[in-house]
Automatic annotation (TrEMBL):
Its EC number is 3.4.16.-. This is Carboxypeptidase. GO terms for molecular function: serine-type carboxypeptidase activity. It comes from the Eukaryota. The gene is LOC107769286. Pfam families: Peptidase_S10 (PF00450). Belongs to the peptidase S10 family. Its main location: secreted. The keyword Hydrolase applies.
């Protein structure tokens, strides 16, 4: 409802766009809030005496729809020869990402899950992104400050068959940039001067949406 209200208020602030086509798009947890917002928009458009919002379409990329289907990756990483046949069998019978997430949410990760997770880390290595096995990794994750122009050059010119790949150290760069005092001041962020650095969605910020899905 807050997102719908934001859209309505935004059109009041910028009435020149009121007749524009609207497209809603998102990834990950947008698999929940984009469809929900779409329903609210359609309901709003059915109300009498309102000017309908010209919603044209929605797009979801790698959406988190259901923990039973949206987070499992065993077959994918095995098909890229990133884990062994034996580990694939263990992940099928003992552990999968769904079980691990549910146990993590309730802070009760079993020894079985921990063991399979450790074996996966041993076979794949900790610097491989399960979401994109073919993507280049940052030369030294967490040290983008020292990489300087090297990471930018590396990111711009590393190529696969599909074309140019983005800077693999971009996440580190964004993190460092958004933790600069002058940047936070310009964004009117961290006005309470929190005693820790800003980070991407982790901890409770990440687990509360997952818990709502699990429930």
């Amino acid at each position: 409802k807050e997102n719908l209200q934001f859209i309505l208020n935004w059109f009041k602030k910028f009435p020149q766009y009121r007749n524009s086509d609207v497209y809603l798009a998102g990834e990950s947890y947008a698999g929940h809030y984009i469809p929900q917002l779409t329903v609210l928009l359609l309901d709003y458009n059915r109300k009498p005496n309102v000017k309908p919002i010209k919603l044209k379409s929605i797009a979801l990329g790698n959406p988190l729809l259901d923990l039973e289907i949206s987070v499992k990756s065993s077959e994918y990483i095995w098909s890229h020869v990133a884990i062994s046949d034996e580990l694939l069998t263990m992940r099928r019978k003992i552990y999968n990402e769904t079980r691990f997430l549910l146990e993590s949410i309730h802070n009760n990760v079993s020894k079985e899950c921990t063991k399979v997770w450790e074996l996966t880390d041993e076979e794949m290595g900790s610097d491989i992104d399960m979401g994109d096995l073919l993507a280049p990794t940052c030369v030294s994750s967490g040290t983008a400050r020292q990489l300087g122009a090297l990471a930018t050059i590396h990111g711009k010119f590393v190529k696969h068959e599909v074309g140019i790949v983005a800077d693999p150290c971009l996440t580190d760069r964004i993190n460092l940039y958004l933790n600069k005092p002058e940047v936070q001041k310009a964004l009117h962020a961290n006005t309470t001067y929190l005693p820790y650095a800003w980070d991407f969605c982790l901890g409770l910020v990440l687990f509360f949406p997952l818990l709502s899905i699990a429930l």
